[in-house]
Amino acid sequence: MVTGYNLHLDKDITKFQDYVQIGETHLSGQKAKVSENLKKYVIDGIVDGTQIEKDWFPQMEADVFISHSHADEKLAKGLAGWLHSCFGLTCFIDSCVWGYADDLLEMINDEYSDKKNKPSGGCIYDHKKCNTASKHVNTMLTIALYKMIDKSEITILLNTNSSIKKYKDIYQQTTYSPWIYSEIG
């Protein structure tokens, strides 16, 4: 990454509404072809994390990495459409390209974390096994994020009320998202 920008925006999508469809079209061809067959990734009882990362969180060439809150995905797509339409820039938005880490975790936990059905509905997983799966998947996702940020020329943080919260002291800002926190770190 050459430079980063902290783009303060309100949630008014109308500024980019005309570009949302352009952004969706621009990003649609980038979607990862994820495998939902976990057995593909297990060799002699050992999960092949390299192959999971390659399939679920593939790297691509992009000029701009757009960091955003999940609540601002439409705004991020509109910005991507505007950047692509007006400047010919290739944008990367993780949720438009990668498999969803929570889906991967659910698949792993369903298969390997000793799932027990609760009489009242839902299920309970073995806590230690879930934590182990979560550590591995979240580490893979974090590494993939850092690789994409490094490959991109520009990183833009969509700084809205959904992504960055202000405390009473106006100089203190934080985010509840571990991904935004790691992307701007």
SSE pattern = EHEEHEHEHHEEHEEEH
Structural class, from helix and strand content?
Answer: alpha/beta
Report the major sheet.
4 strands, parallel
Give the strand content: 15-25%
Q: What's the alpha carbon Rg, rounded to whole Å?
A: 18 Å
Oligomer: single chain
Average pLDDT reading:
81
How far is it from the N-terminal to the C-terminal residue, by CA?
13 Å
Our count of helices gives 7
Q: Strand order across the biggest sheet?
A: 1-8-4-5
Count of DSSP E strands? Answer: 10
Q: Per the principal axes of the C-alpha atoms, what is the gross shape?
A: elongated
Can you put this structure into words, describing what you see?
The protein has 185 residues and is an alpha/beta fold. Helices cover 45% and strands 16% of the residues. It has 7 helices and 10 strands. It has helices at 17-28, 49-56, 73-87, 94-97, 101-112, 127-151, 178-184; strands at residues 3-8, 42-43, 46-47, 64-67, 91-92, 116-117, 123-124, 154-159, 165-166, 173-174. The strands form 4 sheets. Strands 1-8-4-5 form a 4-stranded parallel sheet, sandwiched between helices. It has a two-stranded antiparallel sheet with strand order 2-3. A two-stranded antiparallel sheet has the order 6-7. Strand 6 and strand 7 form a beta hairpin. The longest helix has 25 residues, at 127-151. The two termini are 13 Å apart. 28% of the residues are buried. The model has no long low-confidence stretch (mean pLDDT 81).
